[in-house]
Amino acid sequence: MSETRVALVTGGSRGIGAAIAQRLAADGIDVALTYERSAERAAETVRRVTAEGRRGLAVQADSADAEAVVAAVERTVTELGRIDVLVNNAGIFPMVTLEELTVAEIDRTLAIHVRAVILAAQAAARHMTEGGRIITIGSNLAERVPAPGLSLYAASKAAVLGLTRGLARDLGGRGITSVVVSPGSTDTEMNPADGPHADGERSAIAVGRYNDPSDIAGMVAYLAGDGGRHVTGTAITVDGGASA
Ligand code: NDP
């Protein structure tokens, strides 16, 4: 891994994605990131990447838009020269009762959490060489659902577990790995550590505290590096023991 590597982090404007972008840059990787609405927050993440001495690029791309997802991968390659690490992180948190679920909500969630991940992996794999990494941010709710209202979210996050196993087989022969990182409760705008559900979530966590986004970024950085060389077709849970 002598040449400077390039990563694309989807949903890198804030939360876990922003922490991943900054950490990969600190590890010597140039970073492109996508965002949906938060242009200024995305620009701030790019500033943090460049402060680490790396090149950064922000691309507006709604993950629900199939063409925009593929275009973001292509722009990464055009402007930063290559793609070595794809981090599928962009996500939403629909918490809705089964009775209230709409077709539009189902379609949008699956488009962002599943279709975009397949398309980004397909587009990135065309350019990746030996050592490529496809890392998808799942959720520990894919394995165990502790409350009602989470069926759609859990289903969408479970889908990427199957996808990741398939990608490991599709791409293993080219030395490209595919792995899911499954966070538990992580202190972001999606799930603030002082939010209305936080005490309930915290009570299930063995270590008694939420993840910091840097906890997820650390695992992604490990997998993106040499340590991840032989980790593929599987998921790694980072949830402070909530699933123990
Ligand atoms: P945040 O809500 O803090 O950030 C979400 C990020 O995703 C933002 O950068 C946002 O961009 C981007 N995003 C959302 N929708 C789209 C879209 N349609 N197209 C492009 N980008 C989009 O969430 P987290 O950082 O907490 O979550 C990141 C990932 O981690 C998600 O996949 C989530 O499901 C997963 N996760 C989070 C957990 C938690 O407790 N926080 C637990 C388990 C998993 P913009 O700023 O432009 O809106």
Could you characterize the architecture of this molecule?
With 244 residues, the protein is an alpha/beta fold. The protein has a single domain (6-238), classed as NAD(P)-binding Rossmann-like Domain (Rossmann fold), CATH 3.40.50.720. Helices cover 43% and strands 15% of the residues. It has helices at 15-26, 39-51, 66-80, 103-127, 151-171, 198-203, 213-224; strands at 6-9, 30-35, 56-60, 85-88, 133-137, 177-183, 234-238. The protein has a 7-stranded parallel beta sheet, sandwiched between helices. Helix 2 links the parallel strand 2 (30-35) and strand 3. The longest helix has 25 residues, at 103-127. It binds NADPH dihydro-nicotinamide-adenine-dinucleotide phosphate.
Quickly list its features.
7-stranded parallel β-sheet, 43% helix, binds NADPH dihydro-nicotinamide-adenine-dinucleotide phosphate, 244 residues, alpha/beta, Rossmann fold
